[in-house]
């Protein structure tokens, strides 16, 4: 009765006679004793000792395993080994054989790779082998279990270990592996369930799990991580874990076979009777009924429903293989149970509106997500039409990410569903699939629901993966609850919005400033720039102090790369343009960083300093500002300071110190003086002249000119100017005096000293010149006289000594008109040419050179002209050229040259006419030998010699040089 | 998954009072509004910490229907604690408590800790059994009482943990013979080998140590 409590479906299709009766034909009349399946075979063994292997296409291979009968068989699931127990003769010890089905002999009979006689003569009832082929257990009818360890295909000689006798025939066994290396053997008898730990080699401790037992074939091990050993009792299926009882499922009926297939439990049971006479069954009728009413039931344990049930005349075994179930009857009829595909199963479930079941099942079978979403949507639609909106939303939420949200939103747009809609939207955001409109909608929902707390919660928890368009959220929040908007903005670093809300909605300017202060530099710069106007309008002082802080941090940060983004004070200047004092104050905050200031910044600063200066009435403060500006100008870098700009500023503000400084700095002294003069600051001007007159002497002239024109010019300065002009000969005296004369203001008294000195000097010059003229005239006279004498009078050569060696002149001797006489050999030795007097040659040569050069120069007309242009005193230049005979005829010059030659031409006297032999030959040593003479007394040139009376009068060269006679003397 | 102790629980009470939901809420922390009838006995486990000791709770959730009574009774025996559940919106489930209690006392060991649970406390509007009544019943029979809601998970955790605490205290007092597995208490593998302070530590009779 409780059977009926589980939901029933039909998820299997049955195919009768799947093998086209091939198996029954093969088996014939013999009785099937054991069946098994695995590794692509169904295995049936009969009491004739034959084993039949059935392939998928129902090709049957038969081989003889035993002479008498096969009792038990187990085909390993994943290897080709088949283990059988059978007897060759009745009532002897049974033999265990291991066959390798993949190795065949010539008759294509599988090879028996192991044959072991079992140690007991009792009948074996159960056989159990692990898939790794290392453990094998055989249960006997008397309750003994023989445990074989080691590779079952090789270890032929290992003795089985006999486990504790249970006193009752073993009905079921199963190996279970826990944690990869712990092996347990579940054993069931007719009245107990126990477990042996067969991990260790020596002892196999037993734990009794329950005092109920089961029949043959009525136990199964469920594979899987949380697997159970299940036994079937008449009232229920009981499950056991390795250490205790597990759940139990109430399924009535006398169970014959328990089998596990995929996730399903297959129960073959005898119905207690036909439903019609179920109440009044007697023992006899029951027996007769049994034959026709054996039912097979497939249970989905996980989902708790019966997925197939049918009745059959008889069932020998149920074998899972090739992805479906095969039901074998005692007569060898094979039926196949094919599980329906998931889609048709789901269709069945949908028809019954069992969407939750469908989902569970689909998930179980790893259905693809798109299809699952589809189920959720159908489920949601179903619930929606049923009016269960919250339930529907729950399903729709599961579709988020795949299903278009508008599909769902559309359904819930009615205001009565707003709760559901909110839930959906919330989930939508949580999953990160929401767009702007969804956010807006959600926030509107919250505000419509008046659930500000929820909104707040949403905002607060949003950092946990809830993704939404923050800007939209803030926008919506702003309308309903500015606090939330603020919190949002702060959390998501929407600083600009945060400030905007603070300023526009709440007018909390100071707190906004404080907020900005907390931001990073870049952010704060950006924000403050955006809202600076508002700040300035409302909290100017705070703003200024904030800006100070901000900008100074920028200056102090050393990172140059960021400079582009940094807050430069000039970025904020425009805010303060109206308030110069503020601006000056602001900029002065950074006066430690002048070197980093930009030109425009500096200019602005100076400009506003000037404005402040202009407006300031207090003299002291004015001077402070003055000093400040000058200091800045002096300290500022050349690079950053645009002096011309400053000059313009200073000029427009008539700020003298700066102008003066800049002019001085730029060396524009004339401008400076003009500036001074324009201000009638004559002292300053003259001071400037004094200072820079040595660099630029024109300054004095400038000043002088001004003095001439300017009526106001204080005359007492004139003297200095004039002196300076005179000293440096800046202007000709003539010009100066003319200018002075023209001046209307200057009296003679002012310039008397100057004039006196000027004229005095002129007079002296004049006198000097006169003297010179006289002297030159005298010289000329003398020269003319000499020439005359040379031309007309006889010349007496009186020279007694050779002009070269200074010895007594001997013949032969050479005499020159210049009164020089030589020994001939001396002359030959000294003279370069025969015509020239060696003593006079250098002198004459010089003169000749000069004359020659003059002759050359006169060709250079151009040179003359250029010189004339350049010359300060052109007159003297022209006269010089006259002096060089520039304008004489060429022939005259040559004549002159010839004459001069005549003058120096030698007169060679032969020894005869003039032969006064006065001196002894040894005294005729040449000059060069003088140095070799050791005795000083013999030195003819030794003037101190006692024996030598030098007659000064006799020295022809003794005459004092007559300057006046030198025609070239004037031109030294 | 090592634990100091393993406590076996059983949840009993009339059908439909929310036994399975309590278990589901405790083990999976979820609520299933539509739940199939429990056929037989279901099973759940969770690790909790009592006084920093990890304790594994193994819970059998029994079917409430009279028809299954014979099967569920067999599960009483190995339980150290029982949650006796009634539905505060259904008076009859409260009225049946005595029967359940008698049944439990009869088939379980005498030391079993029984906690009385008034479930569905979220449905205050439909309440039929006052909280005071529950308290009175618990006082009268020496039970611990608590109202829970499997739907909102209100007090669910506490119900299981308080029971575990009580069992733990009883162990400390020596009331439970922890060596007898029939009491529903097992010493964890790590605990038994490492801790000698447990009285009678060499209880490993038949190789239950490897679980």
TrEMBL record, chain A:
Enumerate the SUPFAM superfamilies for this protein: RING/U-box (SSF57850), WD40 repeat-like (SSF50978)
Is Protein transport a UniProt keyword of this protein? yes
**Where do the segments described as Disordered lie?**
928-972
Could you tell me which residue ranges the RING-type domain spans? 802-841
What keyword terms does UniProt attach to this protein?
Answer: Lysosome, Membrane, Metal-binding, Protein transport, Transport, Zinc, Zinc-finger
Q: Where is the composition biased (Acidic residues)?
A: 941-950
One cellular component term (GO) for this entry is: lysosome
Membrane topology note: Peripheral membrane protein
> What domain of life does the native source organism fall in?
Eukaryota
Query: Where is it located?
Result: Late endosome membrane; Lysosome
* Start and stop residues of the CHCR repeats: 396-544
Q: Which residue stretches does the UniProt record annotate as biased composition, category Polar residues?
A: 931-940
Name a single GO biological process. Answer: intracellular protein transport
The question of whether Transcription is a record keyword is answered with no
Q: One GO molecular function term?
A: zinc ion binding
Indicate the principal place this protein occupies in or around the cell. Answer: membrane
Per the record, the similarity remark reads: Belongs to the VPS11 family.
Q: What protein name applies here? A: Vacuolar protein sorting-associated protein 11 homolog
Source organism: Macrosiphum euphorbiae (potato aphid)
Organism lineage reads as:
Eukaryota, Metazoa, Ecdysozoa, Arthropoda, Hexapoda
Automatic annotation (TrEMBL), chain B:
Q: Which SMART domains match?
A: RAB (SM00175), RAN (SM00176), RAS (SM00173), RHO (SM00174)
Q: Where in the cell is it found?
A: Endomembrane system; Golgi apparatus
Q: GO MF terms on file?
A: GTP binding; GTPase activity
Gene3D superfamilies for the chain: P-loop containing nucleotide triphosphate hydrolases
Q: Which UniProt keywords apply?
A: ER-Golgi transport, Golgi apparatus, GTP-binding, Lipoprotein, Membrane, Nucleotide-binding, Prenylation, Protein transport, Transport
Bias type Low complexity, positions:
194-211
**UniProt record, GO biological process:** protein transport; vesicle-mediated transport
Recorded GO CC terms: Golgi apparatus
> Which branch of life, at top level?
Eukaryota
Q: What is its main location?
A: membrane
> Which membrane topology term applies here?
Lipid-anchor
The ranges of region (Disordered) come to 187-211
Tell me which family the UniProt entry assigns to this protein: Belongs to the small GTPase superfamily. Rab family.
- What name does the UniProt record give this protein? Ras-related protein Rab-2A
């Amino acid at each position: 009765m409780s059977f009926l409590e589980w939901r029933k479906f039909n998820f299997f299709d049955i195919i009768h006679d799947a093998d086209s009766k091939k198996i029954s034909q093969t088996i014939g009349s013999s009785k099937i004793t054991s069946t098994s399946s695995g590794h692509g075979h169904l295995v049936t063994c009969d009491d004739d000792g034959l084993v039949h292997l059935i392939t998928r296409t129902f090709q049957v291979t038969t081989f003889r395993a035993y002479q008498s009968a096969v009792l038990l068989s187990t085909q390993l699931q994943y290897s080709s080994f088949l283990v059988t127990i059978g007897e060759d003769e009745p009532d002897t010890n049974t033999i265990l054989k291991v066959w390798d089905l993949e190795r065949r002999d010539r008759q294509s009979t599988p090879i028996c790779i192991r044959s072991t006689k079992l140690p007991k003569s009792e009948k074996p009832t159960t056989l159990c082998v692990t898939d790794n082929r290392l453990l094998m257990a055989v249960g006997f009818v008397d309750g003994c279990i023989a445990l074989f360890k080691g590779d079952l295909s090789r270890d032929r000689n290992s003795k089985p270990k006999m486990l504790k006798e249970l006193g009752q025939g073993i009905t079921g066994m199963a190996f279970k592996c826990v944690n990869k290396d712990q092996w347990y053997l579940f054993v069931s008898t007719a009245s107990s369930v126990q477990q042996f730990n067969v991990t260790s080699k020596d002892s196999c401790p037993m734990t009794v799990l329950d005092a109920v037992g089961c029949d043959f074939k009525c136990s199964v091990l469920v594979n899987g991580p949380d697997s159970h050993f299940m036994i079937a009792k008449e009232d229920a299926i009981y499950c056991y874990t390795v250490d205790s009882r597990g759940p139990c499922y109430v399924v009535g009926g006398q169970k014959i076979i328990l089998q596990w297939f995929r996730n399903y439990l297959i129960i073959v049971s005898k119905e207690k009777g036909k439903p019609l006479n179920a109440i009044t069954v007697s023992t006899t009728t029951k027996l007769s009924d049994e034959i026709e009413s054996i039912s097979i039931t497939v249970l989905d344990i996980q989902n708790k429903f019966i997925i197939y049930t049918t009745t059959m005349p008889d069932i020998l075994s149920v074998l899972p293989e090739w992805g479906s179930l095969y039901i074998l009857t005692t007569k060898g009829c094979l039926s196949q149970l094919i599980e329906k595909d998931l889609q048709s199963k789901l269709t069945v479930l949908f028809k019954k509106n069992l969407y939750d079941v469908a989902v569970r099942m689909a998930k179980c079978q790893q259905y693809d997500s798109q299809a699952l979403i589809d189920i959720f949507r159908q489920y949601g639609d179903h619930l929606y039409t049923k009016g269960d909106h919250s339930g529907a939303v729950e399903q729709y939420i599961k579709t988020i990410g795949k299903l278009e949200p508008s599909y769902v939103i559309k359904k819930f747009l009615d205001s009565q569903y707003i709760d559901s809609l909110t839930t959906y939207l919330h989930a939508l955001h949580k999953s990160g699939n929401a767009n702007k409109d969804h956010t807006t909608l959600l926030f509107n929902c919250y505000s419509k629901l008046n659930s500000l707390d929820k909104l707040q919660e949403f905002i607060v928890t949003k950092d946990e993966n809830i993704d939404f368009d923050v800007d939209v959220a803030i926008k919506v929040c702003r309308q309903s609850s500015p606090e939330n908007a603020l919190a949002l903005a702060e959390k998501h670093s929407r600083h600009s919005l945060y400030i905007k809300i603070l300023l526009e909605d709440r007018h909390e300017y100071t707190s906004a400033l404080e907020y900005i202060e907390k931001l990073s530099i870049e952010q704060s710069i950006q924000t403050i720039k955006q809202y600076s106007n508002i700040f300035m309008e409302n909290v100017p002082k705070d703003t200024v102090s904030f800006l100070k802080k901000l900008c100074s941090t920028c200056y102090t940060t050393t990172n140059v790369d960021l400079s582009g983004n940094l807050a430069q004070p000039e970025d904020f200047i425009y805010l303060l343009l109206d308030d110069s004092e503020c601006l000056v104050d602001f900029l002065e905050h950074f006066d430690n960083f002048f070197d980093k200031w930009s030109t425009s910044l500096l200019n602005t600063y100076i400009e506003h300093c000037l404005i402040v200066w202009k407006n300031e009435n207090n003299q002291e403060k004015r001077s402070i500002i003055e000093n400040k500006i000058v200091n800045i100008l002096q300290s500022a870098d050349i690079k950053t300071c645009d002096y011309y700009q400053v000059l313009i500023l200073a000029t427009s503000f008539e700020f003298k110190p700066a102008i003066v400084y800049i002019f001085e700095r730029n060396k524009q002294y004339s401008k400076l003086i003009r500036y001074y003069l324009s201000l009638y600051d004559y002292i300053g001007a003259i001071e400037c002249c004094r200072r820079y007159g040595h660099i630029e002497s024109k300054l004095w002239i400038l000043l002088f000119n001004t003095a001439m024109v300017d009526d106001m010019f204080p005359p007492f300065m004139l003297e200095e100017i004039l002196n300076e002009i005179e000293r440096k000969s800046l202007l000709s005296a003539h010009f100066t005096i003319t200018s002075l004369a023209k001046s209307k203001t200057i009296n003679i008294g002012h310039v008397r000293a100057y004039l006196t000195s000027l004229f005095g000097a002129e007079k002296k010059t004049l006198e000097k010149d006169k003297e010179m003229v006289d002297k030159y005239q005298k010289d000329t006279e003398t020269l003319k006289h000499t020439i005359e004498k040379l031309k007309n009078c006889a010349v007496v050569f009186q020279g007694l000594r050779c002009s070269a060696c200074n010895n007594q002149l001997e013949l032969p001797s050479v005499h020159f008109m210049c009164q020089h006489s030589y020994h001939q050999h001396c002359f030959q030795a000294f003279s370069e040419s025969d015509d020239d007097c060696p003593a006079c040659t250098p002198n004459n040569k010089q003169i000749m050179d000069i004359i020659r050069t003059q002759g050359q120069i006169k060709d250079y007309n151009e040179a003359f002209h250029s010189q004339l242009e350049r010359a300060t005193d052109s007159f003297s230049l022209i006269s010089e050229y006259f002096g060089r005979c520039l304008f004489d005829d060429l022939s005259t010059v040559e004549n002159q040259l010839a004459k001069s030659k005549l003058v120096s031409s030698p007169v060679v006297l032969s020894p005869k006419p003039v032969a006064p032999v006065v001196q002894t030959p040894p005294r005729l040593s040449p000059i060069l030998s003088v140095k070799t003479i050791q005795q000083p007394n013999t030195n003819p040139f030794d003037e101190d010699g006692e024996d030598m009376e030098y007659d000064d009068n006799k020295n022809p060269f003794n005459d004092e040089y007559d300057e006046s006679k030198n025609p070239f003397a004037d031109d030294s | 998954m090592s634990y100091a102790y393993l406590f076996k629980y059983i949840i009993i009470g009339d059908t439909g009072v929310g036994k399975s939901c309590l278990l589901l809420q405790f083990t999976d922390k979820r609520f299933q509004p539509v739940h199939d009838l429990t056929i037989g006995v279901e099973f759940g486990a969770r690790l909790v910490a009592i006084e920093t000791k990890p304790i594994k709770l193994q819970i059998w959730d029994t079917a409430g229907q009279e028809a299954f009574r014979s099967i569920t009774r067999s599960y009483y025996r190995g339980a150290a604690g029982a949650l006796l559940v009634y539905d505060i919106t259904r008076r009859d489930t409260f009225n049946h408590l005595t029967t359940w209690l008698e049944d439990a006392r009869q088939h379980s060991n005498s030391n079993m800790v029984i906690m009385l649970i008034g479930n569905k406390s979220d449905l205050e509007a439909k309440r039929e059994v006052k909280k005071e009544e529950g308290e009175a019943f618990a006082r009268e029979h020496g039970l611990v009482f608590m109202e829970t809601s499997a739907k909102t998970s209100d007090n669910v955790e506490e119900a299981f943990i308080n029971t575990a605490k009580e069992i733990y205290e009883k162990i400390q007092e020596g009331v439970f013979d922890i060596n007898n597995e029939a009491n529903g208490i097992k010493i964890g593998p790590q605990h038994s080998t490492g801790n000698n302070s447990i009285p009678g530590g060499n209880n490993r009779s038949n190789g239950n140590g490897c679980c």
